[in-house]
Amino acid sequence: MSDTSCNVLLVVGSLHDASITRVVVKHLADNLSADGCEVNTLDFIEDPLPLFNPDTVWEQDYYLLLKERVAAADVIVLGTPDYHGSISSTLKNFLDHFWKEFTGKLFATIVASHEKGLTVHDQLRTVARQCYAWSMPYGVSFIEKIDVKNDQVASDELRNRLEMLQHDIQVYGRLLANQRASDITGTAPGFLAQLRK
Ligand SMILES: Cc1cc2nc3c(=O)[nH]c(=O)nc-3n(C[C@H](O)[C@H](O)[C@H](O)COP(=O)(O)O)c2cc1C
Fold first, then answer.
1. Share of the chain above pLDDT 70, in %
2. Do 106 and 76 touch, CB atoms closer than 8 A?
3. Which of helix, strand or coil describes residue 190?
4. Does residue 193 belong to any structural domain of this protein?
5. Domains in the chain: how many in total?
6. Ligand 1 midpoint to CA 70 (Å)
7. Whole-model pTM?
8. Interval between CA 196 and ligand 1 midpoint (Å)
């Protein structure tokens, strides 16, 4: 395994057929994969995720399969449109299914917005903190018809931001994954001690 390879789960938080979030997630997934990362994309338009119900979900086959994919990831890229200055219900529904599986992992956030999506990124950082996950110190936002056109990343600015994000995902994803594994198998009293068997 190279120093910059890692296992990345990417989430498309839009059910919109012509979603620009999906276009940007795919762009990032393709480039991560080309650089040797294990890449897994969740797109709920292809695999619908039932609404989270804590009374019934835990033994369901779809949940157990999804949990394996989340557990295998070092980095989770959360893509969402800006809905009312907040995250989409599609992404929130995914997030509600997991907690410990996110602990000690790295979240990266990408947001389709007309307004830079800052409140959306902030809300995802709050989710990360609640789950003891790390978050990138910045997010990537983009605007329809300017940054994404004809199902392609169309602006140099977005292309450059995604290149930076890809680099940071690989570098910090690997670093944190190595430290997470060592803390879980170790005996020191860090926050990852809660995941020891
Ligand atoms: C219900 C709803 C609420 C929205 N609220 C906002 C908003 O508060 N701020 C904003 O910039 N865009 C808002 N938008 C616009 C979407 O964020 C924008 O169209 C985005 O590009 C959609 O991404 P998608 O193509 O990946 O679904 C809203 C769209 C919808 C459908």
1. 98
2. yes
3. coil
4. no
5. 1
6. 26
7. 0.97
8. 41
- Tell me whether residue 77 is in a domain: yes
Q: Mention every residue, 6+ apart, whose C-beta is less than 8 A from residue 123.
A: 86, 87
What span, in angstroms and rounded, lies between the C-alpha atoms of 67 and 72?
9
Q: What would the pLDDT profile of 95-136 be if each residue is shown by its tens digit?
A: 999 999 999 999 999 999 999 999 999 999 999 999 999 999
Q: Among all chains, which residue has been given the structure tokens 């795919």?
A: 26
Provide CB contacts within 8 A for 78, sequence distance 6+.
11, 13, 87, 91, 95, 107, 108, 109, 110, 124
Please give the pLDDT value at position 105.
Answer: 98
**4 in any annotated domain:** no
Which residue CA neighbors atom 24 of ligand 1 most closely? 19
For residue 86, give the ligand 1 atom closest to its CA.
Answer: 8
Asked if residue 102 lies in contact with residue 132, where contact means CB atoms within 8 angstroms, the answer is yes
Residues 6+ apart with CB under 8 A from 167: none
Cα separation, 80 vs 88, in Å, equals: 6
